[in-house]
Amino acid sequence: MSVLAKRWRSLWKMMPCLDFEYSGRTSYETFSNNVCRCLLSHQAPVLQSLDLWIYFTKGTSSIDIGILVGTAFGLHVRKLVLNIFTGGEPFKFPSSLYNCETLETLELGSNLGSVLVDVPSPVCRKSLRTLRLIEVDYKDDESIINLLSGCINLENLVVNLNGDESCENVETFTIAVPSLQRLTIIDYIYDSVCEINAPSLKYLKIEGLLVGSDYCLTENVPGLVEADIAINGEIDENILGSLTSVKRLSLKVSPLEVRFSCD
Fold first, then answer.
1. What three-state secondary structure class fits 127?
2. Which CATH number fits the domain that encloses residue 74?
3. Taking Cα atoms as reference points, which of 260, 239, 86 lies closest to residue 163?
C-alpha cells in the first residue's frame, strides 16, 4: 500500500462524521456488513454523526437496521439521521433508539418514505437536545406522549406533519416538554388538533394549512421572544392569545403579511 493510501486510510478512520446509503443494488446483508466493518474500524473516541439513508426493500427488518444503530451507539454517536424510504407499510424504527446515553440529536423519517412511531411506554433519553420528526406516522396519541416525555432536556423540536397518514390514528398531538425552547411545526393536515405545553419556549414557528385545525398553548409562555406564523387560512385565536410576550413577530396569513419587532 502506498504512503498516500495509508495516510488517507488513517484519516478516514478518524473521521467524526459518517454517511451511508443503501439503494438495493446489492444485498442488504452485504451493505450492513460493510457498514459495521467501517464503524468498528473507527478510531475516534466519539462518533459525531451518522447518516443512514436506506431504500427499504422486501426482507429488510427493524432488527437489521437495529444492528447498525446499536453499533453506532457503541461508538457514542452524538447525532443520528435515519432516513427510511418505503413504498409500502410504514417502517417501525428500532427500539434500540430509546437506549443511547450520548445521543444529542435525532432525526427520523423522510418526505419520501414512512417511519412508524410506536412507543408503548415512556422511555428516558436524558442527553437528547434536538429531535426532528419528518413526516413519520404515529400509532396513537400515547406514542407521541411517551416519545417526548422521556426527553427531559430536549431544547429543539421540529415536527413535520405533511404526510397524508401522519396523524391518521391521532386525536390530539400533545407536545408536553417543560425544557423545550424552540418549536417548529409544519402542518398541512386538515382538521388537526395540537396542544402545546412548553413553558420555557422562546421561539415558535407554525407553518401550514390550518383550516379547521385547533392549536393551543396550554401553559403561559412568558419567555416567548420570537414567533413566525405562516398559514393559509384563518389564524386560530388560541395562537394569537399566546403571543402577547413576543418581541419579534412574523405573521403571514395569506395573502396578508405583517412583521413586528420591539427591538
1. coil
2. 3.80.10
3. 86
End-to-end CA distance of the chain: 61
Does 10 map to a domain?
A: no
User: Closest Cα to residue 157, out of 121, 93, 213, 105?
Assistant: 105
d(CA 155, CA 175): 12
User: Which range marks the domain in which residue 131 is found?
Assistant: 17-261
pLDDT for 43 equals 65
For residue 255, is the peptide bond before it cis, meaning its omega torsion is within 30 degrees of 0?
Answer: yes
Residues 15, 53, 156, 165, Cα dihedral to 10°: 180
Q: Which residues contact 89 (CB under 8 A, 6 or more apart)?
A: none
User: Is residue 53 assigned to a domain?
Assistant: yes
Nearest to 72, CA basis, from 53, 96, 91, 90: 96
d(Cα 185, Cα 76) in Å, to the nearest integer? 29
Using DSSP bridges, classify how beta strands 256-261 and 248-253 pair: parallel, antiparallel or unpaired. antiparallel
pLDDT digits (tens, 9 = 90+) for 151-182: 999 999 999 887 556 677 888 899 999 999 99
Residue indicated by cell numbers 418514505: 113
pTM metric for this prediction = 0.84
- CA angle at residue 191 from 189 to 195, to 5 degrees? 95
For residue 13, report the phi and psi dihedrals to the nearest 5 degrees: -65, -20
Say if CB 22 and CB 55 are below 8 A apart.
yes
Residue 1 in any domain: the answer is no
| Average of per-residue pLDDT values in the chain | 79
Rounded to whole angstroms, the Cα distance separating 97 from 246 reads 36
Using alpha carbons, list the distances in angstroms from residue 226 to 11, 130, 204, 206: 42, 19, 6, 12
